[in-house]
Amino acid sequence: MAKFNIFRARPAGTSPVATAPGPTAHTHEGGTGHPRDTKSELFLLAVSNMGGEATFYESGTRRDTRFAQLVRDAALTDPEWTARLLGWLRGEANMRTASLVGAAEFVQARLAASSDAGVTNRAVVDSVLQRADEPGELLAYWTGTHGRRVPKPIKRGIADAVARLYDERAVLKWDSDARGFRMADVLNLAHPSPGADWQGSLFQYVLDRRRSPDTAIPAELRTITARRELMAWPVEQRRALFSRPDAADVLRRAGMTWESVAGWLQGPLTREVWEALAPSMGYMAALRNLRNFDEAGMSDEVAAQVAARLADPGQVARSRQFPFRFLSAYEAAPSLRWGHALDQALQASLSNLPALPGRSLVLVDTSASMTHGTISARSKVTPAKAAAVFGVALGAKGEQVDVVGFADGTFRHEVPRGASVIREVDRFLERIGEVGHGTDVVGSLKRAYRRHDRVFIISDMQTIGAPHGEGVSDVVPRHVPVYGFNLNGYRHAAFATGGAGRHEFGGLTDATFRMVPLLEAGRNATWPF
Q1: Cα of 282 vs its chain's centroid, Å
Q2: Pick from 134, 82, 129: which is nearest to 107 by CA?
Q3: Side by side, which strands form the sheet with 32-35?
Q4: Which residues of 144-168 are buried (b: 16+ CB within 10 A; e: fewer)?
């Protein structure tokens, strides 16, 4: 019998997502609720709020109002922390709408309070603008919420971002009459200084084109010139391009995306078209078009090149796709030739999930609140699907992991070593409804906890009350760490967190899981930004 080479839990560190020590409220299902401090509530809501999207228990309007107020409060009490959160939110966490709204409310609160301590409002605005359509998005939000008068910090932050983001391809992709704020409107409001002569010519062209679509194109704007020449081709010549070996280069020089090619050809995209487009398509565009590739009959040779790119860990990291996107692509693609690449991509996107020693229990919520409604209006992914992705992946990485689905009851889900995570997630999701539709965290722990070394609970945390008033710590000893992973960011926690052994994370990426190894080593974890 081993005496030394065995796993022993170390003294646990503390984590920043904290609640009040005692329960003073209730969850949406009537269970014991623990209010969080402002930063903790804001963090968990920010990493799960898509903007205007309702969840099972909260309307989109209510969530947005709560988020805006939390940002305003945090901006006044700790502007440096809030600025770091917003920059991280747009970058690593990839929460676009929340970060734009957050930056606007940050500025509004500080201007209203005449506060300018610490970080500048201008820098915060600049930090959240990472795509060329976002200056217009931010202006649309500001004017729709706070009126037509745009303050100088907003204008100056936008001007800084425009100098980084506006180039020929951005103009071709994002500037259109479909937008309330066109790029010319942004330029007129922000008055950015061009970073080079070509950008000065581009800015002037954008302004002139707003008044006259046929305005002359400056000679240095070669991509826009190539696009105008292509648009003048007759339809027969456009179709004939795809029989030429240089088709991909011609399209690339003109900044033609697959969407613009679809309108340009005035007809269906054939195999030849997709094969010409595939080498220059963005990662997300390729991921979303696997069904179209199959239906057009894309050759195995070109498909293999696309699959290799999808599976490449570096490409996955740069794409910043949410892990569940790969599950959605797998479900949408008709053929099996993408399966292995998507499985590899999914696992690469979850590189921050810990592979922990000892025995772990992973509880995955399959209740009605997790299976009704989707993460966003454009998505088919339910919170339960996102939870299953994290839960099954944790099961695949650990030494001895019990993955358990729970609602009113529990079911054990075996994850074979070396199994495909995507296929195991599919198999797990087929079992939803097997143990009811309520959310019973404490009761499920009673049924599933067997002296494990740690517990993960992946849920919206809106639990019913325990019959005898027990809490999580009445079932799991206090020296055993419990990690709640909150997918919806509701106001009240299901158990007290922040102290030793009780922690809560959140979001739609694996970024916050980086805190787990620190906590397991007995070190205090900080915010992931």
Answers
A1: 17
A2: 82
A3: 25-26, 32-35, 492-493
A4: eebeeebeebbbbbbbbbbbebbbb
Locate the domains of the chain by residue range.
48-92+95-221, 352-520
Name residue 311's amino acid.
Answer: A
pLDDT band at 1 (very low <50, low <70, confident <90, very high): very low
**Helix, strand, or coil here: 25?**
strand
Name the residue among 373, 492, 313 with its Cα closest to residue 50.
373
The Cα–Cα gap between 1 and 138 comes to 64
C-alpha torsion angle, residues 426, 432, 435, 439 (rounded to 10): 120
Nearest CA-CA partner of 473 in 439, 496, 444, 498: 496
pLDDT confidence bin for 12, thresholds 50/70/90? low
- Report the C-alpha gap between 383 and 386 in whole angstroms: 5
Classify burial at 219, counting beta carbons within 10 Å of its beta carbon; exposed 0-12, middle 13-18, buried 19 or more. Answer: exposed
Please give the Cα distance from 159 to 190 (Å, whole number): 5
% of residues, the chain, pLDDT over 70: 98
**Is 278 strand, coil or helix?**
helix
Q: What is the pLDDT of residue 3?
A: 47
Average pLDDT estimate for 407-435: 94
DSSP 155-180: HHHHHHHHHHH--HHHHHHH-STTSS
CA–CA dist 484, 507 (Å, integer) = 11
Average pLDDT, integer, range 206-213:
93
Q: CATH number of the domain at 352-520, out of 1.10.10.60, 3.90.550.10, 3.40.350.10, 3.40.50.410?
A: 3.40.50.410
pLDDT score, position 23: 82
Tell me the whole-structure pTM to 2 decimals.
Answer: 0.91
Chain centroid to Cα 456, Å, comes to 21
State the Cα–Cα distance between residues 214 and 195, nearest whole angstrom: 26
Identify the weakest region by mean pLDDT among 230-234, 378-382, 407-411.
Answer: 378-382
Report the distance separating Cα 15 and Cα 516, nearest Å. Answer: 9
Cα 90 from Cα 271, distance rounded (Å): 36
Nearest residue to 349 (alpha-carbon basis) of 327, 376, 367, 378 = 327
Confidence of residue 529 (pLDDT cuts 50, 70, 90): very high
Report pLDDT digits (tens) over 59-95: 999 999 999 999 999 999 999 999 999 999 999 999 9
User: What is the 3-class SS of 289-343, one letter each residue?
Assistant: CHHHHHHHCCCHHHHHHHHHHHHCHHHHHHHCCCHHHHHHHHHHCCCCCCHHHHH
pLDDT 10s digits, 479-493 = 999 999 999 999 999
Q: What is the helix, strand, coil percentage profile of the chain, to 5?
A: 50, 10, 40
3-state secondary structure of 256: coil
Q: Is residue 471 very low, low, confident or very high in pLDDT (cuts 50, 70, 90)? A: very high
